[in-house]
Amino acid sequence: MYNVRTGYPGHEFQIREALDEVIGSQKAAFYWDKFLEYFFTEADATFYKSLGLNAIRIAFNYRHFEDDMNPRVLKPEGFKHLDRVVDICAKVGIYTILDFHAAAGGQNIDWHADNPTHVASFWVHKDFQDRAIWLWEELARHYKGNPWVAGYNILNEPTDPTHTRLQVWYDRCIKAIHAIDDEHIIFLDGNTFASDFSHFEGHLAERWPNCVYSVHDYSPFGFPASQEKYVGSDEQKAKVRRDYMDKSAWIRERGLPIWNGEFGPVYARKQYDGEPTEGINESRYLLLKDQLEVYDQEKISWSIWLYKDIGFQGT
Q: Per the residue annotation, which of 253, 262, 282, 298 is the catalytic one?
């Protein structure tokens, strides 16, 4: 449901607006409906299960559920595709984790929050924060009692410059969800793109009960800008392990549950990278293998970014 991934041609809402202008809103709505329908089907769920995986994180944009010109009013089609994916995953024994990837106002400064301004206005306008809580209340009512929804990842990669407003929003959102549904797990990203938990205060098992803490463990070796090819040397493996241990140290020191909500290398494609493509990807697959070994050794669950992608990442 977070369906325009690269960011290069424009943000999701801009692409949708452009399509509306070119072919008309009725045809554009039909296109996006079919895009979502065919993007993840029963065949995808069956394939995913065949890999030995048992949970998938579903990213969604607030725009699927409400309109900026009609806030706090659920769109009639809002749950259509989210329900469809949850149900087809359940049929083959896959749990789903609902990932709020793009909130009104932009919870971070980047295009992947569908934010065109490079200002995370979510943190300076309380109404944006209130709308996010309203949407989670609607989601909690809708999925309460559904055993195949493993939980709610309530805000992807926040970037609160004060380090305090995120905590206050977590207080409010968790309380609102638990007033409706206190059974589903809540997954909490650290601040600054899920990297910084150091400002979280209090006895968190009591402050935020039934919550798991989510790191995003991207390795520098997995990006095109890396100056060093990953060959799986002892030194490189040690760095891969050290990077994860550093990111998760705050959580582990407090005995809190950990989930690696995102990780994964960026792969090469022949049309862009030419002859080196195969060698680059062999290196990235090796990195992926070594990262998974770390997670197995540390006994943590994970969700790769991303199962299916129109860009450079994915399976």
A: 262
Q: Which position among 42, 157, 201, 228 bears the catalytic label?
A: 157
Respond yes or no: is residue 157 known to be catalytic: yes
CB environment 167-203: b (16+ within 10 A), e (fewer) = bebbeebbebbbebbeebebbbbbbbbbbbbeebeee
Handedness of CA 140, 144, 148, 150 (dihedral sign): positive
List of E strands, the chain: 55-61, 95-102, 149-153, 185-189, 211-216, 258-262, 301-302
- pLDDT tens for the chain, residues 1 to 315: 554 555 556 778 888 889 989 999 999 999 999 999 999 999 999 999 999 999 999 999 999 999 999 999 999 999 999 999 999 999 999 999 999 999 999 999 988 888 888 899 999 999 999 999 999 999 999 999 999 999 999 999 999 999 999 999 999 999 999 999 999 999 999 999 999 999 999 999 999 999 999 999 999 999 998 999 999 999 999 999 999 999 999 999 999 999 999 999 999 989 889 999 999 999 999 999 999 999 999 999 999 998 887 668 876
Residue 125 Rama label (left phi>0; alpha psi -120 to 50; beta): beta
- Give the β-pairing of 301-302 and 95-102: unpaired
Q: Is 298 a catalytic residue?
A: no
Phi-psi region of 186 (alpha: psi -120 to 50; beta: other; left: phi over 0): beta
